[in-house]
Amino acid sequence: MRGWGLLMLLWVLGGSMAWAASPAVTPTQIRLASEEWSDYTNKDGTGLAWDILRKVFEPAGVKVRTRSEPYSRAVGLVQRDEADAWVGSYHQERSENLYPRWPFDVDHIYALGLAGKAVPQRETIGQYRLAWVRGYEFQRYLPNIKRYDEVQRRNGIVSMLVHDHTDFYIDALTEVEYVQSMAKDPALLKSTHLAELPLYLAFANTARGRALLELFDKRMDSLVPSGELREIFERWEQPYPFAEGQQQPGQ
User: Fold this and answer.
1) Intra-chain end-to-end CA distance of the chain, in Å
2) Exposure pattern of 141-154 as b/e (b: 16+ CB <10 Å)?
3) Apex CA 243: angle with CA 240 and CA 244, to 5°?
4) What 3-state class would DSSP assign to 160?
5) Is pLDDT of 236 > 60?
6) Residue 199 in contact with residue 104, Cβ under 8 Å?
7) Measured CA angle at 229 (ends 172, 45), to 5 deg
8) Which percentage of the chain shows pLDDT scores above 90?
9) CA-closest candidate to residue 100, choices 205, 243, 232, 171
């Protein structure tokens, strides 16, 4: 009986090890959460980023499900496993999430301030009082940041700048242009380029997330060299980030 019991134990352990070693089954859908950015991640599912991600996943049999939430809430949905990834993370922004080798786009980061102020540079931006949307954590990607405020919404930024409550507002170019357009006299404000930051999907640290991440990188390994994503950027009149000499995987 003891010999039979040992054989049964070895059979069970062998089966368990084989199961653990087998690759995760790729889900048939991916749940993506994102802040709503105009013409990028529109609430109705249109936009540049949604088109890119559908091109990545749907030909591989994975349906893209989109959800619009404020940035911090989108991050929280992934942490609670209510979404598989959030859209628009900077590289290794959150240590508890999984990051692919490939970005899907690049964020053009600008500083918005009064036109009469000195022009900031990437190397000097830390000398100023700064503001940005809560959750973006630009202090991790720009040098020597010391003083900054995080705001919940962008609609008070113009007032903060005009009344000298902050020196510069930091955001991606599209959002900076939107904020500037809300001023009574947009000419009072001036934007200055600071940096180019690759944009990633930040996946949940789960078996499901790992399977989707592996599929994402595999598809990008094919789509970027073939140039198949270029048409999407051209359609939305945005610069193509994967030209030779520009963004490469894992950077």
Assistant:
1) 59
2) bbeebeebeeeeeb
3) 170
4) helix
5) yes
6) yes
7) 60
8) 79
9) 205
The residues of the chain that CATH labels 3.40.190.10 are 25-106+197-235, 107-196
Encode pLDDT of 114-125 as tens digits. 998 889 999 999
107-196: what CATH class? alpha beta
Both tokens of 125, joined, read 């931006």
Q: What is the mean pLDDT of residues 59-65?
A: 98
pLDDT single digits (tens) 135-155: 888 999 999 999 999 998 898
If phi over 0 gives left and psi between -120 and 50 gives alpha, with beta otherwise, what is residue 85? Answer: beta
Domain 25-106+197-235: homologous superfamily in CATH: Periplasmic binding protein-like II (3.40.190.10)
What token pair was written down for 5?
């019991």
Q: What is the spatial order of strands in the sheet that 147-151 belongs to?
A: 63-68, 29-34, 85-89, 189-203, 105-114, 168-172, 129-133, 147-151
Is pTM beyond 0.90 here? Answer: no
* Mean pLDDT confidence for 208-224: 97
> Is pLDDT of 15 > 60?
no
CB under 8 Å to 162, separation ≥6 — which residues?
114, 183, 188
